[in-house]
């Protein structure tokens, strides 16, 4: 892992965008093919890219039951406890309608309505992510979405991982399809014979999935384009090198394009973390992925001061930030841009990935400057409602008409003026 002076921090450029460009053509072809050929295209692509020859796209009740029956009861309990924590935190995010009384009878409102149907993409491919099932499904259920659908690519044997099915059942989701990649996103957006279209698609995935979400945006809503995982750690000489190294590697093992950055005021810690990363890399089953990520997108930066480290993090706006310093809460208050912040040595990032209750679907690629992680807000919409009494109308319509004429919109002015006789007079006619 490289060590550099912090002045070079922002030269850490990712080449993810370039990889994306190469996939755009494929993704557009896949979407067109699914629109034209429906289920047949889904079967063909699943055979081509996942190696599975399916006869049925939908997961049956029996498959879910079988997965549950064979699953380690301790893990079921762990998933259930994680689900309860996620449910508890997300329930706090539920918003009431806003009612604003204008006079005795007139009012305006902000009315909250859950979305009717959402599709959750659960990545398959290189790993199974039951935690992502919980992180996507629970906020949707808490928001009150009626139809929640899961799509995920099957194994060569035509199965979804038991852990994904168990997590889906714990979250209360029963409509699950064995399809992944851009073809799954196209099916959710446009519908096929088997999969009815949805209103919004959420969930992370590889660059084919991310690009497909971008392509169908407008036809349906999407949560975000969540790219490869990222972590930045601010640490001083109170941090332990082995702990810091393991936190960097926890993100690196996700993806060859994941980025892991340490910003420290301690040169000693920097050198020790460098050695530790190398030592611990050899112990990881996904060493090849983690090593590629650390070599291409990993760096240890030496900062002159913690204030400079804070500035760099605010510029970088990382998906995850860990603060392992003498007074981490004080540093945390100065952070303006990060998807999620983990304070102190006992709040390592996997606490949030799996268990504590916060969401792990977070903005990447510096988009934490202007966006937030997945929440109940992603599964609702807000409609304004207006009720004007005759008295309110009487009082304000001349002002509205004048404002309309200021914009030379005579039709608007006449619309508001056209009520210039009361209901009683109307009924008397
Ligand atoms: N941000 C988060 O919360 C979070 C959580 C979990 C995973 N992730 C990320 O999700 C991603 C998972 O990626 P993955 O690949 O393992 O699974 P995936 O499910 O996203 O993608 C697998 C699918 O990609 C498609 N595909 C593969 N090769 C293709 C090709 N040559 N042409 C067209 N389509 C092709 C296939 O349809 C396949 O089913 C990783 O980047 C990981 O970091 C993020
Ligand atoms: N750290 C990932 C988001 O960047 C989420 C995840 C899922 N499983 C483990 N981790
Ligand atoms: Zn993770």
TrEMBL record:
The kind of enzyme this is, by top-level EC class, is oxidoreductase
Chemical reaction(s) catalysed: L-histidinol + 2 NAD(+) + H2O = L-histidine + 2 NADH + 3 H(+)
Q: Which residues are substrate-binding?
A: 229, 251, 254, 320, 353, 407, 412
Q: Where does Zn(2+) bind?
A: 251, 254, 353, 412
One MF term from GO for this chain?
Answer: NAD binding
Q: How is the cofactor bound?
A: Binds 1 zinc ion per subunit.
* Residues annotated for NAD(+) binding in this entry: 121, 183, 206
Q: Which GO terms describe its cellular component?
A: cytosol
Its pathway, per UniProt, is:
Amino-acid biosynthesis; L-histidine biosynthesis; L-histidine from 5-phospho-alpha-D-ribose 1-diphosphate: step 9/9
Q: Name one GO biological process term.
A: L-histidine biosynthetic process
InterPro entries on file = Ald_DH/histidinol_DH (IPR016161), Histidinol_DH_CS (IPR001692), Histidinol_DH_monofunct (IPR022695), Hstdl_DH (IPR012131)
Catalytic site positions = 319 (proton acceptor), 320 (proton acceptor)
Its needed co-factors are:
Zn(2+)
- Residues folding into a coiled coil are none
Q: Which Pfam families match?
A: Histidinol_dh (PF00815)
**EC number in record:** 1.1.1.23
| PROSITE patterns in the record | HISOL_DEHYDROGENASE
Q: What keywords would UniProt list here?
A: Amino-acid biosynthesis, Histidine biosynthesis, Metal-binding, NAD, Oxidoreductase, Zinc
> In which domain of life is the source organism classified?
Bacteria
What does this chain do?
A: Catalyzes the sequential NAD-dependent oxidations of L-histidinol to L-histidinaldehyde and then to L-histidine.
Similarity-based family: Belongs to the histidinol dehydrogenase family.
Q: What is this protein called?
A: Histidinol dehydrogenase
Which gene specifies this protein's sequence?
Answer: hisD
């Amino acid at each position: 892992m490289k060590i550099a002076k912090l002045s070079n921090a922002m030269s850490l450029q990712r080449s993810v965008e370039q990889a994306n460009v190469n996939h755009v053509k494929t993704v557009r072809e896949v979407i067109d093919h699914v629109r034209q050929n429906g289920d047949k295209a889904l079967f063909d692509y699943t055979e081509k890219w996942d190696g599975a020859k399916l006869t049925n796209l939908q997961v049956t009740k029996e498959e879910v039951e079988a997965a549950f029956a064979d699953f380690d009861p301790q893990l079921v309990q762990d998933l259930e406890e994680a689900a309860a924590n996620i449910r508890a935190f997300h329930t706090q995010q539920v918003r009431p309608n806003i009612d604003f009384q204008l006079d005795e009878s007139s009012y305006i409102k902000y009315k909250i309505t859950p979305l009717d149907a959402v599709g959750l993409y659960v990545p398959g491919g290189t790993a199974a992510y039951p935690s992502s099932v919980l992180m996507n499904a629970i906020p949707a259920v808490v928001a009150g979405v009626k139809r929640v659908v899961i799509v995920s690519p099957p194994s060569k044997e035509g199965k979804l991982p038991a852990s994904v099915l168990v997590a889906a059942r714990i979250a209360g989701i029963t409509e699950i399809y064995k399809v992944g990649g851009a073809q799954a996103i196209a099916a959710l957006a446009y519908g096929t014979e088997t999969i009815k279209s949805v209103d919004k698609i959420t969930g992370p995935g590889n660059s084919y999935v991310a690009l497909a979400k971008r392509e169908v945006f407008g036809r349906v809503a999407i949560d975000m384009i969540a790219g490869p995982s990222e972590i930045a750690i601010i640490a001083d000489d109170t941090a332990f090198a082995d702990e810091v190294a393991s936190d960097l590697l926890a993100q690196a093992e996700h993806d060859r394009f994941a980025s892991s950055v340490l910003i420290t005021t301690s040169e000693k810690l920097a050198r020790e973390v460098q050695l530790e990363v190398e030592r611990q890399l050899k112990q990881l089953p996904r060493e090849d992925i983690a090593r590629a990520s650390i070599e291409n997108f990993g760096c240890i930066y030496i900062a002159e001061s913690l204030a400079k480290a804070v500035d760099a993090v605010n510029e970088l706006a990382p998906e995850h930030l860990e603060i392992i310093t003498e007074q981490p809460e004080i540093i945390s208050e100065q952070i303006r841009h990060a998807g999620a912040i983990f304070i102190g040595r006992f709040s390592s990032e996997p606490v949030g990935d799996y268990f504590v209750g916060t969401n792990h679907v977070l903005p990447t690629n510096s988009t934490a400057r202007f966006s937030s992680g997945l929440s109940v807000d992603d599964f609702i919409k807000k409609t304004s409602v207006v009720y004007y009494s005759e008295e309110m109308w009487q009082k304000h319509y001349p002002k509205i008409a004048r404002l309309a004429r200021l914009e030379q919109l005579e039709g608007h002015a006449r619309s508001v003026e056209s009520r210039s006789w009361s209901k009683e007079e109307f009924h008397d006619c």
